[in-house]
């Protein structure tokens, strides 16, 4: 087959380090009958070793040239190819207990993580390669300057595990940034204590809209001085000073008051 020229617009940095590929596959630990979905199989660096351990694999790929290669290489009984943009793909159509994996295109990693978080109920676990800087933001705790909307919303919904650091030499072409592999396991329903998740998202988005400002300013339209006091949260703090539990507490208080519960 003709050599494929990596396309920057699709974030194509292909994994080439066999040791690292083996470590990632071993972290995923695929079992024959798992319903595994790979986002962005590319030239198959992870796809091949995964398929050795699986009966079947779903892939979502946007690049037509790569799709043509996949079709030539893998028979339909081994691989279902979903052509198109993972950002617009309805993962729920693949059923539940899904295991999502991928060396994700870095140029869309944050919106893609938010999109995928919407399918948490259909997912058993996710293993993703991302820029290290994104993983740092995902696992950031209150007080870290990296703590942001991504940290709070993902930590609300998932248990996160930073598994591996991956240097640029493991890819062709090498990316300009360091990378890392993270595991995301959806929390059980009883761990999700927000009474109104849309309201939680609204409070978190407003708080981080101007992260250097105090909460009493960023949340002025949503939270009164009395409500800050009732939630035990100092309004002089900034968004990055609060953790998931604080945001859940604040949004639950608002939700109860909106519903007239005293
Ligand atoms: N898995 C391969 C590897 O590890 O070598 C390729 C990883 S490469 C970083 C990202 C892959 O995602 C490419 O195959 C690229 O074409 C694909 N991709 C980029 N944007 C996409 C999108 N919006 N939806 C689906 N796939 C996308």
Topology:
Blueprint: E1 14-15, H1 18-28, E2 35-39, H2 47-52, E3 57-61, H3 64-73, E4 79-83, E5 98-103, H4 109-117, E6 123-131, H5 132-139, H6 149-157, E7 158-166, E8 171-172, E9 179-186, H7 197-209, H8 215-218, H9 225-231, H10 244-258
Parallel strand pairs: 2-3, 2-5, 3-4, 5-6
Antiparallel strand pairs: 1-8, 6-9, 7-9
Describe what you observe in this structure.
This protein is α/β, with parallel strands linked by helices. The protein has helices at residues 18-28, 47-52, 64-73, 109-117, 132-139, 149-157, 197-209, 215-218, 225-231, 244-258, and strands at 14-15, 35-39, 57-61, 79-83, 98-103, 123-131, 158-166, 171-172, 179-186. The strands form two sheets. A seven-stranded mixed beta sheet has the order 4-3-2-5-6-9-7. Strands 1-8 form a two-stranded antiparallel sheet. α7 packs across α10. The protein is elongated. The N and C termini lie far apart (68 Å). The structure holds S-adenosylmethionine. The site of S-adenosylmethionine has 24 residues, from β1 and β3. Residues 10-15, 39-43, 45-46, 60-63, 66, 85-87, 103, 105, 108 line the site of S-adenosylmethionine.
